[in-house]
Amino acid sequence: MEKLVIQGGVPLKGTIRVSGAKNAALPILMGSILLAEPARFTNVPNLRDIRTTISLLDILGCPGRFADGVVETDGCDPKPEAPYDLVKTMRASVLCLGPLLARLGEAKVAYPGGCAIGARPVDLHLSALEKMGAVFDVDSGYIMGRCEGRLKGAHIVFEKVTVGGTENLLMAASLAEGETILENAAREPEIVDLANFLIACGAKIEGHGSSVIRIQGVERLVGCEYSIMPDRIEAGTFMIAAAITKGDLLLEDCPNYALDAVITKLEEMGMKVTKEEKGTRVTYVEPLSPVEITTQPYPGFPTDMQAQFMALMCYVDGTSMVEETIFENRFMHAPELARMGADIRPAGRTARIKGRDSLRGAPVMASDLRASASLVLAGLAAEGETHVQRIYHLDRGYEKIEEKLIPVGARIQRMNEE
């Protein structure tokens, strides 16, 4: 097992290129199940979850090759079963359910795994697909679905906003018979990217990026070449790195259009964020002020940036507040930050953070993907040495993070646990 060892206290200065978005690449790659023809995907991040997805697609009859940020698929002759051994490691595996039903009329998908940040049931996916004619049984940890002939278009109103549910239904409806309307749909930029990919393959979709999406089903989709959008959460994490180390970073390929809520909060704290010809510059200019954040579905403040902001708040004089409304168990980084000297008082879905001048390096343990990032950020600014353990979580969502941080001044190295 590997860990990151960080010697903190160095302002980060220089240029970092933002990688392709994991949360866009995963559903788009799953969308290749819908294609009988080859496709080529560029700007794909080299991440554990991406490699797991390619392995899963191969088992599902959709072989692909991944090298130098490019995935090439040969066209899919799908098989219906997504086995537990792969699905257990990655929640996004459930996104093969809709495409398999659309192509084959059947699917057998193990209940998914992933980060332990709270309940993320697939009930909304299943109830929506049932309205399109699918029938489901659950047996021995597997979701088994089938439908007679093609899925049928339906008017679906999600009980609550669901990113995965919107993605699954968007793909399923693209090959369904008739029109599907999705109301209370998720609006995330990654969903817009998925819709744009499907449109490039011949799908008929309108309203993506709004809460009402209309899909006119077509009989077949064709292959295409498609570039994955930049990762807004990775970009936001590096913005925090500039703030927490009192540094100055230029982020290339930074998707500012998808980061309004994050940039607004950073500017409210006192950071300078400017768009330049070569990217977005994030500069520390004066002592930061405390803020309050409440996580919300897009375009609100993203839950995937909550842990990173909490790490920054630990270094800001005064009292900051965090309210987590998306996941009920997403403060697991708080006790680890406290090991470094942070003053964090969680109470249910809120946390009060009283900032101080500095934290002290310590051995800490990551519990999930974004918690890992928060601990790395805290270590970059801390006095002394920080050991971040269980970084396999981090590798699920950040492409070689230490190789991006070292050139801008970070003293960080990957080591094997003793």
TrEMBL record:
Q: Which Pfam families match?
A: EPSP_synthase
Reaction(s) this enzyme catalyzes, per UniProt? phosphoenolpyruvate + UDP-N-acetyl-alpha-D-glucosamine = UDP-N-acetyl-3-O-(1-carboxyvinyl)-alpha-D-glucosamine + phosphate
**Keyword flag RNA-binding:** no
The record's Gene Ontology biological-process terms are: cell division; cell wall organization; peptidoglycan biosynthetic process; regulation of cell shape; UDP-N-acetylgalactosamine biosynthetic process
- PANTHER family the record matches: UDP-N-ACETYLGLUCOSAMINE 1-CARBOXYVINYLTRANSFERASE (PTHR43783)
List the keywords (alphabetical): Cell cycle, Cell division, Cell shape, Cell wall biogenesis/degradation, Cytoplasm, Peptidoglycan synthesis, Pyruvate, Transferase
- Pathway it works in: Cell wall biogenesis; peptidoglycan biosynthesis
The protein here is known as: UDP-N-acetylglucosamine 1-carboxyvinyltransferase
The protein's matches in InterPro entries, at most eight in alphabetical order, are given as: Enolpyruvate_Tfrase_dom, Enolpyruvate_Tfrase_sf, MurA_subfamily, RNA3'P_cycl/enolpyr_Trfase_a/b, UDP_GlcNAc_COvinyl_MurA
Q: What's the chief localization of this chain?
A: cytoplasm
Citing just one GO molecular function, the answer is:
UDP-N-acetylglucosamine 1-carboxyvinyltransferase activity
CDD domains of this UniProt entry? Answer: UdpNAET
Active site residues per record: 115 (proton donor)
What are the binding positions for phosphoenolpyruvate in this chain?
22-23
Cited function: Cell wall formation. Adds enolpyruvyl to UDP-N-acetylglucosamine.
Positions with a binding annotation for UDP-N-acetyl-alpha-D-glucosamine: 91, 120-124, 304, 326
Highest taxon of the lineage:
Bacteria
Q: Name one GO cellular component term.
A: cytoplasm
Recorded family membership: Belongs to the EPSP synthase family. MurA subfamily.
Where's the Enolpyruvate transferase domain?
A: 7-405
